[in-house]
Give the backbone structure.
Amino acid sequence: MTRQLILKELYGGLWHATHPDRFAGIICAGAILPEPNILDSDRWKTSRGKHYYPYVRTLGGVSLFDFHQFDADRYTNQYPMSSWWEFVPYPPYWGCSVWIEIDRERVASQLISGSDLIARWKSDNAYQHTIMPQIEAAYLGPLPQAAFKRAFLVREKDNRFHPLEW
């Protein structure tokens, strides 16, 4: 799956990306959990310990990609250290990914926008915790399945979106 093809699909939306095995756990739990039963060794940016966990995790939140008005070239030039491209279309070591679109209106009361999240990160002087500036948003607490609009699987071996049901 090409990055340009999936960006056209993701553009404008609020999304959570996960592995297909984890998607099954999300459906079983009825929510995307801030602290799912996943080993730290299998989680993003946790190898250095709790003091360096991703910022959203320290807040008890679920990390989301906000592709509202996203311009990949402009963003990459402005934030060259951001690792967004490692997730889009999927992490290379996974070879696939499930993208879950979140209904922005249903989660608004517990959503921290990308700009508010980066402001909070700076205010907390939490520079040791990773964050993807502006593009990363946070939902505080378990994100209920009722807020899912749709989900699809993308994988290395084809250029298709595979819709998923729950």
Summary: The beta strands are 14-18, 31-32, 61-66, 96-102, 111-112, 136-140, 143-144, 148-155, 162-163. The helical segments are 3-10, 20-29, 55-58, 72-78, 104-107, 114-123. Residues 95 and 156 are 5 Å apart (CA to CA). The chain has a mean pLDDT of 91.
